[in-house]
Predict the 3D structure of the following.
Amino acid sequence: MPHTWKLGKHWKKHETHSNLMAPINNVMPDITPLLSRCNRPLQMSFEDQLNILVYFHLEEHRSGRHLLQVLKEEHFARRYIAPVDGIEKSSFFEDIGSRGLEQMMEVFGKLYGKAAKHLPKGHAELGDLVLIDGSLIDAVLSMYWADYRKGSKKAKVHIGFDLNRGIPKKIFLSDGKEAERPFVEKILAPGETGVMDRGYQSHKLFDVWQTEGKHFICRIKASTEKTMVRTNAVQADSIVFFDAVVLLGTTTINQTAREVRLIGYQVDGVDYWIATDRHDLTAEQIAFAYKLRWNIEIFFGWWKRHLKVYHLISRSQYGLMVQMLAGLITYVLLAIYCHDQHHEKVSVKRLREISINIRNEMSFEDIVNETGVWYYQPPKQDRLYANP
């Protein structure tokens, strides 16, 4: 007698994938439509493009070709991720490299805005902290635009990371040789505090940022010349050994026009010198805020290792930016999902769990596709049972 299958009340079809992508569905009505550039309809809509790229990062595919193979061979991916009529290799790579950037930027901006209101705010006592840093991406020699050095090509992403919510908020892409300091102006908004490493030290920009109402906590070189204006009291039992208002740099050469607060503290025998315009925080809070800068390094490592964002699909600057934005969108989706479902931050454990759940849902869908009916009996172990 053939087995029969029924849909149990404890089984929800594609629950994991649907919950993960729900925030996208909420912002899509406000996104500028992606229109065909000719009389032929688009083979891959923007919704398809976004869905495919999120799936690429979520499932850690090795390359664009591997992704296309999955879209053709796996039932779930073919039915729910790929365009209705499928997508050919040439069309896929052409579309990724030339379409959807405007829409991808809109989705990321709106998704961040919703996430910033939805996710809990940590370290509120420190104000709105934005960690700022750049990361190099290995490129191939045919990527002529990615200048780095002779015989080597690299691109660079410049990220502003919202420390309070634990998610990225701004991204810019340049060639590997591009200086990082000018991107602070684009990343930081008035009232926010940029937290930066020594590579961002610029006495001229320290003056500019203060004029624009943009705050900074920036490590500087220990050898930087300091002209004392006044000193602040330092606690005897603190890691802080210096707290003063100074002018940085050499007179008539590169000295700051505006006063800067300078904090010196020591951790594990290493001296740190931090320049800031934040006079409302204690010296210990300034030291702690700079310590939190390490979170952006953790993000870059996690983003690169577990979402495979540096496994390039496109070699054009346009297409690479599309992929980077899709990688950021995937991370924000994970942050919202982990908070809503588990009240946790993004973790490898939850990423693996999401991936396994989606695969289980794919397997269940394959069974249904073959039999035409559903059955699920929820025992202690999550398994499917046939009812003869």
In short: The chain has a mean pLDDT of 86. The radius of gyration is 25 Å. The first strand starts at residue 129 and ends at 138.
